[in-house]
Amino acid sequence: MPSPVFSAAHTAAPAGLTLPQHAPLVAAIRDGLVESVHYGSAVALAADGSMAASAGDPLAPFYPRSALKPLQAVAMVRAGLELPADLLALAAASHSGAAAHRDGALRILELHGLAAGDLENSKDLPYGPAEREDWLRNGGSPTQITQNCSGKHAAMVATCVINGWPVRGYLAPSHPLQQLVAQTVIELTGEEPAAVSTDGCGTPLFALTLSGMARAFGRIAQAAADDDGGPGSGGAEAAVGLAMQQHPQMVAGEGRDVTELMRLLPGAVAKDGFEGVQLVGLADGGAVAVKISDGGDRARMPATVRLLDALDVDTEPLAGIATSPVLGGGHEVGRLLATDFLNQLSAPVNEAL
To answer: Domain limits of the chain?
Structure first.
């Protein structure tokens, strides 16, 4: 009998590995009993940048995954990328793979004399369940265009063409595009990455803190709010923020909670990321950030809405995405609910950010 690929004897965490001190953020309640608990860390920054509330270990470095995309898009706009707002929103997207998303990625390429073969992201089926089923029903297979990061990658190769940079190898950390992205991430977050890795789509990935990422999203949302409509008045941050707000269906897709949040909360800039990451920037510069320790996607939004409460945001319109039912026999027997996890701080702690 062949031995298993993994065994307990060979999968222990490396000695000396530091584990974040996460806190219980969300619980699944079945008929009054706590059935499951999602741990994680969270932070809410006030408009002045002070930490208004926190839970767990908000200063521990983590990988934001696709929540980095709006920051990457800011870097590309700074490098001369000019796109219609719907396509700029797609550049910051983890899209569901609907026809509008696929066609949008192809439009970005065509506008700059490029083709799908110029992309270096991984191949995948559409991310959205309905979109995936439709694609497979029509004989589709994994492609780079259907992969949920194709808008970002199309924008990246377009930015290379605009600047005369090599298109081949544009994902290498030493490439001028990725060097610019790294500098922009450092500027917007106000911190140096604790580590660098590679995201699932092949893009360089930076380890940052929840506080740093919240700061970046607050800056993007505030720039969008402060834009007076004049030519270039709000800069790259405003362009990206406004595009995401105006076209939330391009940032995620129909039926996705991130799209719904931006529709229901005017002035917000929101982006999720794999492994349980959620960021929301607000028009006044405040922001919230969540990391679910087990990567559970279902726990992102309940914790996020609870954090928004801490910033006195009217979350009543978000009630439909702030929780979800726990079913038994097809009937609701409980709910997925945020715990009372907030640690209200008695004084600003900017010096600790």
So the answer is: 65-343
